[in-house]
Amino acid sequence: MLSALLVFRTEGGGRLLRDVAGALIFLAATVASAAYVLQLPVKGLLATSGALAIIVGLALQSTLSDVFSGIVLNATRPYQVGDWIHVDGFEGRVTDIDWRATLLLTALGSTVVIPNSVAAKTKIQNLSRPDNQHGVAISLHLPLRFRPERIQEVLEQALRGYSALLPSPAPKVVLKTITEGLLEYEASGFVRTPEEKIPARNRLYDLAYRHLRASGIDIEHMAEIPPDELTKAVLDDVRAFSAFTPDNKAHLLQHLTRHVVETGQFVLKANEVSDHLLVIGCGVVSVQLQNGEQWIEVARMGPAEILGEQGIMDRLPNGAQFMALTAVHVFQVHRDAVQACIQAGSPLRASLVRLQAVRRQHASSMLLRKAPAMAPGGFLKWLRQH
Question: Which of 104, 186, 325, 355 has its CA 20 to 30 A from that of 158?
């Protein structure tokens, strides 16, 4: 019963306390057996064992430090098995806490062994507490010639374009320090699990790059993009156009028209057969699918992403609805111009077919996603929390 309570109390770290308690009980039973069963003089035995314990203790000073530090860690519970922590310069998920060390599994798949005495003496950052709230941030250094208010607005739009960020605490952009003519901007938000942090950071850098270019800021060369080249810069970033020749892009540029969709308006309505291939110039678009009587958001789109391909390729109504979360600048190419581009030998058709397949698969997976499993409750939950 005591062993079971220890296991619940420490959630994976109970083995250490159980082993120590077992060793003490075994030692006490050995002394009692020698005194009452074998009728041995235990005073001399205790005196001898005391001297021997001093010698062994000096020899195993480091190991004993790890053992007692492990007991303290299990009693105070700064972390437990399954938590994602940062300790002694290493970050990873706790896979085991034994009598000598804590084992971490890093994001690179390697195992790090942290002696308990080291963990007890250093600062520990538990990234798994509080639950379902883990910070992620990116930093950019941009010249002061770019107006800070403008950069801040663009980065806030980039944060809004990533739906995996939690709405609360709200994502934010902070202007931090000025160094050698460069102003540091930090864009940050929160995700649900530690495993999402690396993909989220990579995604935020990509969104920041695309939104800055769409607003006329080339961070690769730290320069303004001339207004007459801005449309071409957006087309250069469209993945479906990546294999285009200069003639292919020139053909599209000749047939582009541009319009602005205000916040809250539809860029493309559901069940509408689009006559145009649409390219998002700047802004954030919410992609929503109908699930029963409700519309649920399944993704967000930003600069250099395209929509309306289903109407262009198959003349079929669009299954999703696309709503502007911010003011959105949209470039349109009529179906006839797109077909002429395809007939001219461009790889556009293959790119659009791949895009359709990916989007159908993504829509199906989002609608079929199961509800998360319920956490254990009742008396068992109380035991694990206390």
Answer: 355
